[in-house]
Amino acid sequence: QVQLVESGGGLVQAGGSLRLSCAASGSIFSFDAMAWYRQIPGKQRELVAAISRSGSLSYPDSVKGRFTISRDNGKNTVFLQMNSLKPEDTAVYYCNAFKVVPVRRDYWGQGTQVTVSE
Question: DSSP letters of 12-72?
Fold first, then answer.
């Protein structure tokens, strides 16, 4: 059973930084990609960063230049460094991993709250 455990959320002032961690129970190379999503109550979960097995990175415009996804292969951990945080970044952040063969299957962490105050 795949387990993803997030940590690092908390309360920070606008302009500050936080680093989220996601520890996987197995090798992160068993997944086609890993990603971070966020969700505000009443809204759809949105992608904020992704890293493929080959190392390709993807960010939406809303976080590009502020957020950085990275990984530590030896520790089976993926990180999300968040700089220049804004109040609109407030959300629950979820770690995601997925495989596409034979069919797409997604795995999710439990989520960690990030709150950015004015």
Answer: EETT--EEEEEEESS-GGGSSEEEEEEE-TTS--EEEEEEETT--EE--TTTTTTEEEEEE
68: CB partners within 8 A, 6+ apart: 49, 80, 81, 83
- The secondary structure element, H or E, covering residue 73 is none
> In the prediction, which pLDDT does 68 show?
98
pLDDT digits (tens, 9 = 90+) for 38-92: 999 899 999 999 999 999 999 999 999 999 999 999 999 999 999 999 999 999 9
- How far is the C-alpha of 73 from the C-alpha of 71, rounded, in Å? 6
Residue with structure tokens 């502020």?
66
Distance CA 16, CA 5 (A): 23
By the 8 A CB rule, do 7 and 111 touch?
Answer: no
- Give exposure, 57-72, as e/b (b: 16+ Cβ within 10 Å): eebeeebeebbbbebe
SS3 75: helix
Contact 25, 82 (CB under 8 A): no
